[in-house]
Amino acid sequence: MKKTAIVTGGSRGIGFAIAHQLGLDGCNVVIMATSSEAKNKENLDKLKDDGIDYLYVQGSLGDSKSREELVNKTVDKYGAVHILVNNAGVAPTVRADLLEMSEESFDRVMDINTKGNMFLTQAVAKQMLKQPMEGKKRGTIVNISSCSAVVSSINRGEYCVSKAGISMLTTLYADRLAGDGIFVYEIRPGVIATDMTSGVHEKYDGLIEQGEFPIARWGASEDVANAVSAFCGDKFLYTTGNHIDVDGGFHIRRL
Prior knowledge:
Blueprint: E1 4-8, H1 13-24, E2 28-33, H2 41-49, E3 54-58, H3 64-78, E4 83-86, H4 103-129, E5 139-144, H5 157-177, E6 182-189, H6 201-209, H7 221-232, E7 243-246
Parallel strand pairs: 1-2, 1-4, 2-3, 4-5, 5-6, 6-7
Helix pairs in contact: 1-7, 3-4, 4-5
């Protein structure tokens, strides 16, 4: 049976690379994004060119009705959900010192990055539990967090807190769902060349030149997509609740 994968924030950047790779792996792909389908025509045409069957759902991860619509439309078209990749996320609109962070900024980032993840995972897990086992597992959930889950950035504290929350959600859902054959994983990207990092390109170029990253280059969206692909296959059947650092070795503590 052909599997169906939902990828939030899947219209561009890391999310699109994940959607494209899962499509190449043989999945139907459901993309959720805040922008219109027409705005992302160039990327979506790539899916068509590669013969990937996809559904585009416009909505906000922070909105309960959008999350419900996403699951309903997926099941209506494909009959089931086998993979969920929680990729969508936002950075603070303004990078403010921790002592100047506003409640509005904190609420916005947490609402999308963490609360949205929590309740979309809940909805998809309930759908997966209605479905039979497919091979040796019932489903796979992959959370895209960040090295910021464990690395302090005091000018975007709300982002760090939101990603640390995703790490705990990975642990909680892995614990709750393992007995039902649904495995949950986390990927922590480091410095990946995307729209989100475009404004700090010079800063990270300097850190790479200074040797802060053992693998001395920017990460690519495809690096993250390949890790997702590995988790979504059948190679990790005695593993759940784990994370992979896709960060060029940045997590390594060195003297």
